[in-house]
Amino acid sequence: MNKSSDARAKLDRLDEALAKDLDTLSDEELFGEIAAESDIEKTVNHMRHLVETAIAEAGRRRLAKARQAYKALAERPRSKVSQLPLGRKKELVVHFAHNAGALPERLTLAARNEDNSEADLDGLLEDLVELGVIDDEGNPR
Amino acid sequence: MAEKRQETSVAQRAFLDGKEFAAAIKALKPSELLRLREKAIYRAWGSGMEGDDLFQEAIVRTLEEEGRKCPCDVPVPVYLDNAMRSIADGERAKYAREAPAGVGQCDEGPLAAASDPAPLPSEAALARIELAEVIDSIQQIFKKDLQAQAVIMGDVEGWSADEVKDLGGMDDNQYLAARKRVRRGLARKFGQREQS
């Protein structure tokens, strides 16, 4: 065992022994010990503050991560199919709604929806590109 | 009735979700918070963090989406203590890997480097000194109290209570009193942040 890992094991044994000590104390004994040198209420309030700020920090980190993921999604290069004229997009989707072949059911049902917005059509066509059903310019493969 | 439904649903799952965990830590009792504070001080030694930072890190990592999870059947204070111990040990290990050449290090390969970002060289050097000297510095706090020193030496080496009592020439009461002096001395030395 080298010097660093030996010190690590020793520290682990020491902190574990002291932590176990605390668990053997009753609440009254613990309060009595701590009250001898510090203000219990102040210490408890300090710990509650640490809890609140840690929860807030976790929320900030989650939000930052979500923003990063959204940014990556927004910056993803769009397929050329989304640049086709709206009429051509509709034609393609109608074509695949009636010639579903081996398309996933979810796509077929979505394609048959007559209320699709242009964004919905773009999404459907990009799914078809990813599946290799059409190429990047909307030509069936 | 709604409460009963929620209890059933928690019991059926293995881990608390983020909201349940946050509610549980907000509801910790004063005695639980005080115990965790003291434990955080001990666990943080040699990790490069202070006890307060370690306590918060355990909470934040649990609330992260891909983070640690608190099992439903483990009391939250026990879980938090285990999490602090594990995080601190990981930090100590990180610095131990950065020990100077020639002291038997063998895990400096690309996998070790990829698994855990290495600290800056200056930080690593500082933490290395802390890790090597932290036990000495703890004993220095009790340089005038031989019985307290015996307690620390015994804990560090993993001796039994009887062996420590024998070493320090203590009876049961003196041994318990010495352990208490160690706890309070360490809390005074390392736990004063909120008092300032």
What does it look like?
The complex is a heterodimer of chains A (141) and B (196). Chain A has 141 residues and is mainly α. Chain A has helices at residues 3-24, 27-35, 40-74, 86-98, 105-112, 118-131. Chain A has two domains: 3-75, no CATH class; 80-131, no CATH class. In chain A, helix 4 packs across helix 5 and helix 4 crosses helix 6 (118-131). Chain A is elongated, with a radius of gyration of 31 Å. Chain B is mainly alpha-helical and 196 residues long. In chain B, 36% of the residues are buried. Classes of the chains: A mainly alpha (141), B mainly alpha (196). The interface between A and B is large, with 48 and 62 residues.
Short précis:
The complex is a heterodimer of chains A (141) and B (196). Chain A is mainly alpha-helical and 141 residues long.
In what range is the share of β-strand residues of chain B? Answer: under 5%
Percent range for β-strand residues of chain A: under 5%
- Order of secondary-structure elements of chain A: HHHHHH
Uncertain residue ranges of chain A? none
Q: N-to-C terminal Cα separation of chain B, in Å?
A: 47 Å
Radius of gyration of chain A: 31 Å
Q: Determine the number of helices of chain A (DSSP H or I, runs of at least 4 residues).
A: 6
Low-confidence parts of chain B lasting 5 or more residues at pLDDT below 50?
Answer: 100-118
Provide mean pLDDT of chain B, rounded: 81
